[in-house]
Write a structure and sequence with these properties.
This is Methyl-accepting chemotaxis protein. By secondary structure, the protein is mainly α. The chain contains 3 helices and no strands. The chain folds into 2 domains: about 45 residues; about 60 residues.
Amino acid sequence: MRKVSLRPALFVLIFTLLQAASYALTSSIILPLVLGASLLLVFSYWPRQPELIITDNKDENLAQTADNITQATSTMAIGAAEVSFFIDSLIKEIKLSSEDSRNIAGVSEKLANAGSGLNNALQSIGNNLQSTACAS
């Protein structure tokens, strides 16, 4: 649990009361400002209680640190495995795409050959029609 400090609340209460009282007594703003500034200086330089950090149980701290390192290492290993799996999947997909590209190239070549054969056949038919037309 965190220890709550009453110091700031007490400062605000005392500051407000002093300002109100000095203004009510003098009807001047200068005295409350001087008192407020001096109170702020006292508040700023007032010695604070140092926070104590208890480090008696070094074995527990060492065990906690080891657990943190183990957790971080496990997280990194899982991340590395996920990356490795992703890269393997990517390589497999690239190989499949390469095979598909080869198949498409083969089919395109066959289609080009069929188109060329069809063109030759149409030219032959055209030549036959022309020679038949000339002969008649």
